[in-house]
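ok so dumb question maybe but i'm new to this and my supervisor (M.) told me to 'just get the structure for PIG-L family deacetylase' and walked off. so i did the thing. is this what she meant?? sequence i used:
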Amino acid sequence: MFGNDNTVLVIGAHPDDEVLGAGGAIAKHSNADDDVHILIVSEGSTQQYDDPDLIVEKREHAHTCADRLGASAVHFGGLPDMRLSDIAHVDINETIESVCADINPDVVYTHSRREVNRDHVAVHDSTLVATRPGSGVSTVLSYETPSSTDFSPDLDGFEPNMFVDISDQIECKIDAFNAYKTEIREYPHPRSPEALRAIARARGASSGFEFAEAFDVLRMYR
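this is what came out, is it supposed to look like this??
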């Protein structure tokens, strides 16, 4: 999955979701010379902070983060933050399908559906539409989002069935996350550098690596 000239699309509802959930995998794909694109579906600011200027700032942070991870491009859907569950499903579908049509990804990463954040669930559902059989996508994976997946009331919780060794990428992931200056929280908050390292270490302990990221394989066509 890493290498073989894959085109990879990592989808996040908000700026920083991509690095929280799959930053190590992004860096690993980039190191393997895969072409990695990131799609941020919402503008990620106005509903939470009531400051439109933060939209521009967060886009700058997203580009800095992507550069540190080695991604080749960042795409922005610009949909309303924290209101994706109120938007017509077809509009979110179209946002994702448009980027898929432009880059023709082989591998797609998206949110888990076992989430407390309704924006994340909406993105998950629309990703499955955009990557349905016949789309040309060979692999679809969902990732966990610290401070959201772990807060879900779903009793089953996030149940990963694939682990990726990011022992060589963990410091790159932390450095990339630090680009999001407005999103960093103090430990023990899950969105802190210390917590991200601890989560990766725990996932590694579950899979025989020093550090790992965990994913749920939603679809794989071979």
